[in-house]
Design goal:
Keywords: Signal. It comes from Tautonia plasticadhaerens. This is Ice-binding protein C-terminal domain-containing protein. A hairpin with a 6-residue loop joins strand 7 and strand 8. By secondary structure, the chain is α+β, with helices and mostly antiparallel strands. The protein has one domain. The strands form three sheets. Strands 1-2-7-8-9 form a five-stranded antiparallel sheet. The chain is built from two helices and nine strands, in the order H-E-E-E-E-E-E-E-E-E-H.
Length: about 220
């Protein structure tokens, strides 16, 4: 638990200065997934996400600071492949009921769907190039750890993640980045089912799709 607290404190300290939700909506890819038990009940699940889309709609937001202005949950909306002809559907996470986020069984603020939407991954093969029209945004999100806190009731998943955007402004490329932490509260007995199906299943699907992907026409990413 000391390791978990240290990671959370470090992520929070950086997040105070740099964190924030980036407006984006479009297609994203989950690559290089890794899942490892550090020690019970702490697990680590690492992967990278690439996203392209039109600025103006929330893609991901959240934090784990009690009483803060932001919601204490991790919001990801359905996204589709808008730009890249090399995008391949790679899998999805299961729909989670609002009770799986709010310990009081109520939907989060500004949440207008009875269920959290399914998360649809779009996989871009390595070394491929994603072309962005003027005004479009490329977003990179790397979730570098997911941990469980065995504190009844209920257990939680803690996502430590970082984001980076690359935007064309007047012919120039402007980049921004930051780090944040998001917490998902999961009711028993769904916690371990979600941990196994919601995190391990997409990793397996992505590996299968990776083996089956076409290799012709790939460009080197700069």
């Amino acid at each position: 638990m000391r390791l978990h607290r240290s990671l959370s404190i470090a992520a929070l300290a950086v997040g105070v200065g740099l964190a924030g939700s980036m407006p984006a909506h479009g297609a994203f890819a989950l690559v290089r997934p890794r899942f490892e038990e550090l020690f019970d009940p702490i697990y680590e699940y690492s992967f990278d996400i690439y996203l392209t889309g039109v600025p103006g709609e929330t893609f991901v937001s959240g934090n784990s600071v009690p009483g803060s202005s932001g919601p204490d949950f991790f919001t990801i909306y359905d996204v589709r492949d808008l730009l890249s002809p090399t995008g391949l559907e790679a899998g999805f996470l299961p729909t989670i009921q609002p009770e799986g986020i709010d310990p009081f069984g109520q939907a989060p603020p500004f949440f207008d769907d009875p269920n959290i939407p399914n998360i649809t991954f779009t996989f871009f093969p390595p070394n491929s190039t994603i072309e962005l029209p003027t005004g479009m945004t490329e977003l990179f999100i790397g979730v570098f750890s997911v941990q469980t806190e065995d504190i009844p009731p209920p257990p939680q998943l803690v996502f430590n993640y970082g984001w980076q955007t690359s935007r064309r402004v007047g012919g120039e490329i402007e980049k921004e980045w930051g780090f944040n932490t998001a917490t998902i509260v999961i009711p028993e007995p769904a916690s371990w089912a979600m941990l196994g199906l919601g995190l391990a299943c997409p990793a397996a699907l992505i590996r299968l799709r990776w083996r089956a992907r076409p290799t012709a026409g790939a460009d080197s990413r700069s």
